[in-house]
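Q: histidine kinase, please. Structure only.
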Amino acid sequence: MNFVKKVIILIGFFFSLSVLSQNKNFLQKKGDSICSNTKEVTFCKAIDFYRNGQYDSCYAYSNKAITLSKNTTEKDFFSCILGYSAFVKGLNKKSLSSILDISEDKDYRQTKNYLLGNIYLRLGKYEEAIEAIQNWLLNSSTASVAIKKVMFHNLAVSYMHIKKYKLAKKFFDKEFQLLNLKDTSAIIKAKMDLANVYYEQYLDDEAIPLFKEAYDLSVTFTDIEMKHNASKNMAIIEKNRKNFEKSVKYFNEYVKWKDSIWNRDRIIELADKDKEVAVAQKDKEIAIQEAEIKQKEAVQRGLLFGASGLLLFIAGLGFFYRKLKKQNAIISKQKEDLNVANKTKDYLFSVVSHDLRSPINTIKRQHLKLQKQLKNKEYDAVFETNNTAIALTESTSHLLNNVLHWSLDQNNQMSFNKDVYPLKPLIEQSVFDFEHIAEAKNIELTTNLDSSLLIKVDKESLKIVLRNLLDNALKYTPEEGKIGVKTFLNNENCIIEIQDTGQGISDEQLTKIKDLEDLTIDKINRSEGVGLGMLLCQTLIKKNHGKLIINSKIGQGTSIQIVLQTVKE
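A: Structure for histidine kinase:
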C-alpha cells in the first residue's frame, strides 16, 4: 500500500502550497520595511518577486541578497523567503538549509516551525516533522482553518509513518472536523487518509469500506486527478485481496483517467495552435482576394479612360500599367510568403507524422503489454513497463514544445525583443529548472558564472536554447556524471559554455549538426535525420547575432559554446 501513503503525502504537499500564500502578510510587511530603509535594488527586486509569486526569480535574487545583508534582520528575512521559494520549487535540502539559518527571533518562530514541519515531512524525517508541527500548534490560536487543516494532516501522516496509528487517526479526525461537508474533494481525501490508517494496521473491515466510499464519491465528482487516485487505490486493494479481475478493471480505469489528464492538456494546447494557424491562413486568403479585386478595378478604370480619347487612352494605359506592375509585385510577394508558409506547414506535418508516430505507437504497445502482464500476473515486469511508458511520454512532450517554438518562429509569430540584460540571472533561471532532474539522476550540475557580463539579446529565445542544450546534456549524461555551466569573456565576445561527461557525439553526427547553421526551410531533408531541437537552437542563436561551437568525442563528453556579443557598461 506504499502508493496510498505517497498519495496522502502528496495531498499534504499540495495543501501546504495552497495555504502558503495565507502566511505571507507578516513577511511582506518585513520586506517592505527593509526595501524602504535600505533602497538596495537587489533587496527590493527579491521582495517584489516574492510578493508576485515569481519564485524562480525570487530564489535567484534572495540568494544574492543574503550576501549583501549587513545585519541579522536582513539575513533572517532573505533566508526565510529563499527557503520559502526553494520549498515551493521542490528543492528540499536547499529549503531546509536556508530555514535553519534563521535566528531564534520570536517574530519568525511560527513561520519557521510551519516550514520545517512541511520540509521534514517531504524529506521523510518524521520525528523532526512531528516536533516542529507540535511546536507550531502551541501558538496556533490565531491561525486560519485552512492552515490548521494542513498541519493536522501533516502531523497525522508523520505519526502514520512511524506506526503510531492511534495518534495518526486522532489528528486525521481533527482535520476531518474542520472540513466543510459541501467540499466533496476534501471529503474524498479525508476518507482515503483514514482508510489508510486502518489499512496499515491490517484492519481491512474498517479500511476497505472507506476506500470504496472515496471511490464512489470520485465517480460522481468532476476532478479527474481524484478519479485517477481513487481508482488506483481500489486496484491495489483488490490485488492484495487476490481479486485480480476486479483489480485489472480498476487499473484500466486508472490508466484511462491518466490518459485523460495527458490528452486534456495536449488537446487544449494543439487546438489553440490550430486556431492560430487557421486565422493566419484566412487573413492571407483575404489579402490575396483584395489584391485581385483592386487589379480588376484598375483594369475597368483604364477602359473608361480609353474611351475619352487616343492620347488620354495611351497616357492612362501607361499609368495603369505601372500601377498593375506594382500590384503584381505585391501579389508575387504574397505568393512567395504563402509558399514558405506551406513548406513550413508540410515540414511540421512531417515532423509530427514521423517523430510522433513512433513514440505514440510505442506507448500504445506499452499499454497493451502492461495489460497482458497484468492478465498473466507478471507483476515484477509491470513497473518496468510503466517506467518505459513514462519516459516515452516525457520525450514526446519535449518534442511537442520544440515543434511549437519552431512553428511560431517560421510564421513570425514568436515575440522577439532584444534588450540589454545581465547574463548571470538568465542562466541561473534556466539551470534552476533542471536542478531537481539532475538531483534525481545523481548528476553533479555546477555553475561558474561571471556576474559582470551584459548582453543584448531576446531573453526568451535564449532561454529556449539553454533549456534545449541542458535537456540534451542531462539526457545523454549517465548517473554519477557531471555537467558544468560557465561564462567568460573572450576578446569582445561573451561565451556561455555547457560541458558534460556524457556519451559524446560521433564525427558523422557532429558534421550534420554543424551543417544546420545555414540550413533553411527550403533545404530541409527529413530523410537525413535533421534534429528539430538543434535546428531550433541554431535558428534562434543566429537571430541573436551569435553562433554555436560544438566539440565532442565519443566516450569523452561534449562541450557546447554559445558565442554572443557583449555589451560594455
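A: Brief note, in case it's useful. Residues 351 and 515 are 19 Å apart (CA to CA).
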